[in-house]
Structure formats: C-alpha cells, structure tokens
Prior knowledge:
2 copies of one chain form a homodimer.
Chain A: H1 7-25, H2 31-40, H3 49-59, H4 65-77, E1 81-84, E2 89-92, E3 103-107, E4 113-116, H5 119-131, E5 135-146, H6 148-151
Parallel strand pairs in A: 3-5
Antiparallel strand pairs in A: 1-2, 3-4
Bound molecules: zinc ion (ZN) (4 copies).
Chain A binds a DNA duplex (30 and 30 nucleotides) through residues 28, 30, 32, 48-50, 62, 64-67, 69-70, 88.
Amino acid sequence: MSACGEHDACTERALQWAEQICQEQGLRFTTLRRRVLEIIWADHAPTKAYDILAQLEQEHASAKPPTVYRALHFLLEHKLIHKLDSQNAYVGCSHPLEHEACYFLICKRCHVVVECCGRALDQAISDSAIAHNFSRQKTTLEISGECEACLQQ
Amino acid sequence: MSACGEHDACTERALQWAEQICQEQGLRFTTLRRRVLEIIWADHAPTKAYDILAQLEQEHASAKPPTVYRALHFLLEHKLIHKLDSQNAYVGCSHPLEHEACYFLICKRCHVVVECCGRALDQAISDSAIAHNFSRQKTTLEISGECEACLQQ
DNA sequence: AACATAGTTGTTACATTATAACATTACATA
DNA sequence: TATGTAATGTTATAATGTAACAACTATGTT
Ligand SMILES: [Zn+2]
Ligand SMILES: [Zn+2]
Ligand SMILES: [Zn+2]
Ligand SMILES: [Zn+2]
C-alpha cells in the first residue's frame, strides 16, 4: 500500500535525502544501509526487521540478524527511519531534513503510516509535561485506526 | 521507587478496585491474577513480564511464560494495568474506574511512571486525527525524560 | 450426587524480536 | 604500503511472546 500517487518518487527522494545527509555529516551510506532503507521504503507500511532480513538473504548470502539490526541502528540514529514501538516495526522518515517532534497515524486496514509534525499537538504535549514539572526528552506518539481512504470504502 | 508517600495505600487501593471491578463484571479475580497485579504494584516503575515470572516461580512451582502472559492479558483487557510499548513493560492503572485516554510520563532516572489523563492533550490528539480524516481507535503516548524529584537532585 | 459446561491453569514446544562477543574485511589517509 | 578505524561476517544466545492441547476447577442443572 502506498497512499501516494507516485511512490517511486517517495523512495527516490528518501534515498537522495539519505545520500545528502550522510555526505554532509561524513557518514558512510554503504550498499547495505542503502539497501535496507530501500526495502523499508518499498511502501508506506511499517516493515519488520525479520522481513527485511528475509529479503536481504536472497541477494546477500551472509545476511544475519546483526546485519539488519546494525543497519537499522544506523538509520535510526541519523533519523532516516523511525521505529514504531507499538508495532515493533520500522518506517522511513518522511522529512529527515526538518526534524521536529513527530507522531504517526497507522491504518489498521491498509497499514499505511502517515508521519505528522504539527506544532499544535507538540505544544500540547510540552504543556502537559511542564504542568507536571517533567523534563521531556523523548516522545512516542502512535495513533492507530483507519485512514481516510479506508473509511471511504 | 515509589513517588508517593504511602505506597501501601496505592497497592491496597488498586487491589480493591480490581476486586470491585471483577465482582461487578462477573469476572474471576483468581489468586494468580491478584498475585501478578500485586507484583506489578510493588512500585510505580514498569515491570517486565519475565521479572514477574521470576518472582512467581519462587512461590508457585508451575509458573511458566503462559502463566504470566495470561494474567497480563486478563489485567490489560479489563484495564487494571497498561503496557508501555516503548519499554516492553507493564504498570498498574492509576484510575481504572474513570477510564479515558491516558498517557505516561516515564522517568529515566528513578523509573517512576506517572499516568496522566488530561482532556486538553486528548483533545489536541483528536483534533489532529480529525484534521487528517483519520478515525482514531487506539493511542500510544509515552513521554520519557526526568521527573520533578530527580530534576531537583 | 452425577453430570455438563465453561473458564482457568498446567505443560510442552516454538515463534518473534533483539543483542553480545569476537573475527575478518574494507576504507581512509599518513 | 603501513596503520588505525569503521563496517561487516559469524556464532551463539538473550529477551519477549504465543500456539496447542491436556488437566483441573468452579458453577449450575438434572
Ligand atoms: Zn509514497
Ligand atoms: Zn487505510
Ligand atoms: Zn504508590
Ligand atoms: Zn525520577
């Protein structure tokens, strides 16, 4: 499920972003890391680590769990992907350049994940943390339900 | 870590709630389920399933993973506990009677979890879902950072 | 009391998700 | 080319969670 007219463009854009970010920061965007990012960007649904492994194995005989998890750690660290804790699965980041607090709308039917970055909601979260004298460091916000397209069926 | 003056009172209250809720709904609050709830309520930190198992084993020779997970499923189903997806761990529900959308402040230092239920933040989440024509069914909101007590040290 | 029933627990086995530890290889650059 | 660092290969294992079926327990009905 892609939820976008031209998904090749999404993938292309994500890979170019990754290339650019790695270049700017002197990071090595190796074949393996690129391939894992491509697999994750095959669609807009969350991808499981062991499904990535299954794909990698077909083209890369030495692929093992650490192969995949290392690539995932690299991509997470540099915010090229996100982990959805409620699903134990990974999605490509939709806007790695301008990175703020983001949250996810996850469709239970078509599995499309939309990444949102609204200042309003982010502010509401900060306000609540402040009200509890809590110093906010990391936020996990994942909303599952049904997307517009699925509701219209 | 308890984050409350009189933690025995927290536990006592939680067990009585559970008793009452099960009675009202014709559910069986068995020894095993009560014991798992007690273990979770030993403090305000998230508890891991296999740590519960380790405790149960000492007093209940036949305890195995399904023993624990069944009790957890029961307690989750009836909203006596919550699972924190960002930690793979479980906490007692602080207000099982008046249950609305809730979210969690998780202290990285002392591990105390505070469950919050603010209408304002809940509304902001709904607004955002509506803005994306998304039908919201389940929300995971977990904020990790440092609590007031730890910040003052 | 005997029986039927549904719910709970026991038991074994396994699936899924993730990491530790150490060896080897590739890459940059001096 | 030597040398150090980062990346990958390799083996093993840890951590989290479920399937499937057997045995038991509580409860209500004949
Ligand atoms: Zn797309
Ligand atoms: Zn959908
Ligand atoms: Zn307490
Ligand atoms: Zn704290």
